[in-house]
Amino acid sequence: MFDKVLVANRGEIAVRIIRACREMGIKTVAVFSEPDREALHTQLADEAVCIGSARAADSYINMPNIITAAVQTQAEAIHPGFGFLSENSTFAAMCEECNIKFIGPAPSVIDALGNKSNARDMMINAGVPVIPGSDGVVKNINEAYDVAEKLGYPVMVKASAGGGGKGIRIVREREELAKAFESAQSETKAAFGDDQMYMEKVIENARHIEVQVLGDQFGNVIHLGERDCSLQRKNQKVLEEAPSPAISPETREKMCQSAVLAAKAAGYESAGTIEFLYDKSGNYYFMEMNTRIQVEHPITEMITGVDIVKEQIRIASGEKLSYAQSDIEIKGHSIECRINAENPDRGFAPCPGLIDYLLMPGGGLGLRVDTAVYEGYEIPPFYDSMIAKVITHGKDREEAIAKMNRALYEFIISGIDTNIEFQSRILNHPDYRAGEFDTSFLEKKILG
Questions:
Q1: How far apart are CA 124 and CA 127, in angstroms?
Q2: DSSP secondary-structure letter at 271?
Q3: What pLDDT, in 10s, does the model give residues 163-184?
Q4: Which one-letter DSSP state was computed for residue 140?
Q5: Which pTM value belongs to this model?
Q6: Taking the alpha carbons of 7, 10, 13, 16 in that order, is the dihedral positive or negative?
């Protein structure tokens, strides 16, 4: 097992990883940008190293500075969290070259799965259902017109690289295609340095379902059930739950086995997520694989009792999985609400600033708050607006919803705007309560 791990991230996920390491007896190194000098993760870690100025390019994605911090502090491994460098194969390779263990899959696996066009071909060969789409990369707009005609509108133009909703456009008619293709290509080039695109048929009124998998270097792969991540705004998840209220036990078994098949086909080691679209007819299709820990991993931890971050660390240190598939039992229901510093009434404009009063939801069985903010903390304007995740667990979905309602009622922050009331609106909408929703729900029922 590692003696010391550097956490190459910030915010609640950095705090989450540091706490897991402390419970495992592992020392930690936090890295921080200048505005994050007083951030919680820097205070909780055993050591903290400044790696640059406010811009992420100068700090949290500054690979030489992070590697230098790891070498200087004699960290044996780096946990990238999510976002930033978590799915960057160049960074993973740099870690290997410097004899530092990257807590995640191998660079070659990140590359193979990070290119969504290549990943799609891999899944086809493995027998995993995929969304009808282009045969590989779409090189130019003329090819895009041909693919769209073959698939039939609406189609989705998607970046082969990247994630986070960038480089994605839905096109409903031919006249929109050229502009959508060019803008998506430009966006992904700026964000990820890669302008390769591919196309898929749009599956209307679908759910976004993802399956958590764990794989070790001995070829063992297990799944931890599925999460329903359909409640999204502009391809960004807002509220997630596990298990999905829409899926039958039979479909769940088939989908989870497809996820295991996908991970084995990739030779996957570490925690990862297979994302599927699930249509009204009960069909599911592979979308992509995320080669990192997910924001919403806590709801899977709540229903399985498996600490996914600790498993990541154990796998990276060369240990076998702590669990066999027969050990995994889904118990109850869990919901996560992402709390963001933003104003839903002003187009979800970010709202950085000083938190002058903070009351977190308190106590009780089946309630967890993952956060890095505290009273007197000033939220910087340079990074993602998510400031907390409220997670509840109940014996069934109704109890999990009741606990979340109570938690949101108690969650008081002053000095900044948040989306807490917006989350309450979702939670108490009759269609959500009935489990009747898909990826269009927020736009049609809450924002429309």
A1: 5
A2: E
A3: 667 788 999 999 999 999 999 9
A4: S
A5: 0.91
A6: positive
